[in-house]
Write a structure and sequence with these properties.
alpha+beta; Glutamine Phosphoribosylpyrophosphate, subunit 1, domain 1; seven-stranded antiparallel beta sheet; 19 helices; globular; Ntn_hydrolases_N; transferase; Gamma-glutamyltransferase; zymogen; hydrolase
């Protein structure tokens, strides 16, 4: 249960926390399917990873059904109706009750159960309710997150009471109970997820916002009661079909990165590690420079424009510009401190679920609904105060890097079968870490476990570039210093800062393997 890689033949799970993995397995053993298991893991992560996800955040997911179809449940959240630059100053945009978009995580995870699951919602919620009521052992990572955010948590009664016993971060192994959150989960089990949007819980949230001069009201909550069901994006890459989420999720930039890898001939650099990582850094740099100049909110792109964006000609133009070291455009926001969590589940019937959820920064907006026991997100910090598609406004859907993805053996239009599914945490490192795993597997023949573990690089915008120590050769550092204006930020061999991938892989005989990134505390298991 503690191994980062687990291989079995029936079903498999990979999540960022042992209790979430166990919750998924509990559902599968109870006769549930991958949707039930993924929902149980997501609810449980909302309890045991309160710094990275929760009821006050958002979720998006990709489901591959046994019949072969793929569906996206798009839970990317919206700014409330009252969100304007006049109503939200710069400080309030980063933290506090006005920094939050309308929470969508409960609606999205609830819809996963309702649309694809077998078990009652009360059963699926049980592991999360149990973890909140009975408590769980504080992990080293949660302790570290609390230490990083001690001042902000101490400023709120809920944060100090729950996460700072005696005024300090709890020791590793300390039992952490969340009675208010347990009561909220119990109410969801009795009354259904819609209570969060149109019932008693919705009134509690609206009252809390009103008392603290927040902007979310009952109309905002009711409008977010169901996620959009959408068609995924897909692209053929090196004889495989890559299927991922559409904008405002990060799937478009992921696919654009694959096209840039082709345009920059990344496959021809396999024998030169320094050249491989230099070209890869250029791929990521090109992706985010291109995203910074998108003319419209990405969720308004037409099919024709998406085809253009992912075309070989456009990728060639970006590659030429990148190699020529053209000046970077100004970007709306520097790279933020976002944190996230991801999980994957595959069952023996052929269903696969890949799900990403987040509250944006560590502990989100740093304020909580103290009665209901969860932190609000601060996704409005990602919106620009300048004119442009990502500007702060009423109803805005902040740009996201979340990219739950399935890669199939064989291209679209053939009798293809799932090869692997993956997703990641880590703000913009979601894009760079997923690209590195996919490219290591497809271009370099690495196993998925090897690809997840492989050293990573990440250029940030604007400014510095990050390199894990295992990739940090003099030749690479010299190449990157000539390519990028900012300084080097060295990272440890398996650095927390470089993203965290969860993945499942299926061999040609049908056996599933789960891979949890060693950079954090995830666990993979199968049976």
């Amino acid at each position: 249960m503690t191994s980062p890689t687990a291989i079995r033949t029936g079903h498999a799970v990979a999540t960022a926390h042992p209790l979430a993995t166990e919750a998924a397995l509990e559902m599968l053993r109870a006769g549930g399917n991958a949707a039930d298991a993924a929902a149980a893991a997501a609810w449980t992560l909302a309890v045991v990873e309160p710094s990275g996800s929760g009821l006050g955040g958002q979720a998006t997911l990709l489901v591959h059904a046994p019949a072969g179809t793929c569906t996206v449940l798009d839970g990317h959240s919206h700014a409330p109706r009252g969100a304007t630059r006049r109503a939200i100053d710069r400080a309030a945009q980063r933290k506090g009750f006005r920094a939050t978009t309308v929470p969508s995580m409960p609606a999205t995870v609830g819809a996963l159960s309702e649309r694809f699951g077998r078990l009652p919602v009360a059963r699926v919620l049980e592991p999360a309710r149990r973890a909140a009521r009975e408590g769980f052992a504080v992990s080293p990572l949660l302790r570290r997150h609390v230490q990083w955010c001690t001042d902000a948590l101490a400023a709120t009664g809920f944060g100090a009471r729950t996460f700072l016993p005696g005024g300090k971060a709890p020791r590793r192994g300390t039992l952490l109970r969340q009675a208010e959150l347990a009561a909220t989960l119990e109410r969801l089990a009795r009354h259904g997820v819609q209570d969060f949007y149109t019932g008693g819980l919705a009134r509690e949230i609206a009252d809390d916002m009103r008392v603290h001069e927040g902007l979310i009201g009952l109309e905002d909550l009711a409008a977010a009661a169901r996620p959009a069901e959408r068609e995924p994006l897909s692209m053929n890459f090196r004889g495989h079909e890559v299927v991922t989420v559409p904008p405002p999720g990060g799937g478009l930039q992921l696919l654009l990165g694959l096209r840039l890898a082709e345009a920059l001939s990344l496959d021809e650099t396999a024998g030169d590690e320094a050249l491989w990582y230099e070209r890869f850094a250029l791929v990521v740099d090109g992706v985010f420079r291109e995203r910074a100049r998108w003319p419209l909110p990405a969720d308004r792109f037409t099919g024709t424009f998406l085809d253009f964006m992912l075309g070989a000609e456009h990728a060639g133009e970006i590659a030429a510009e990148t190699l020529a070291r053209m000046p970077r455009p100004r970007i709306a926001q520097p790279e933020g401190p976002g944190d996230t969590t991801h999980l994957c589940v595959a069952d023996s019937d052929g269903m696969v679920v890949s799900l990403t959820q987040s509250i944006q920064s560590l502990f989100g907006a740093k304020v909580a609904n103290e009665k209901l026991g969860f932190f609000y997100n601060n996704y409005l910090c990602t919106c620009s105060r300048r004119r442009g598609p990502a500007r702060l406004r009423s109803g805005a859907r902040p740009q996201s890097n979340a990219a739950p993805t399935v890669v199939f053996r064989g291209p679209a239009g053939t009798a293809r079968t799932p090869w692997f599914t993956l997703g990641a945490a880590g703000s913009r490192r979601i894009t760079s870490s997923l690209l590195q795993v996919i490219l290591q597997a497809t271009l370099r023949g690495r196993t998925i476990a090897e690809a997840v573990d492989a050293p990573r690089v990440h250029p940030t915008l604007p400014g510095p570039y990050m390199v894990e120590s295992r990739a940090s050769s003099p030749a690479l550092l010299d190449r990157l210093a000539r390519r990028f204006r900012g300084p080097l930020v060295p990272r440890a061999a398996r650095s927390y800062a470089m993203g965290c991938v969860q993945a499942l892989v299926r061999d040609e005989a049908g056996a599933w393997s789960g891979v949890a990134d060693p950079r954090r505390e995830g666990v993979a298991h199968g049976e």
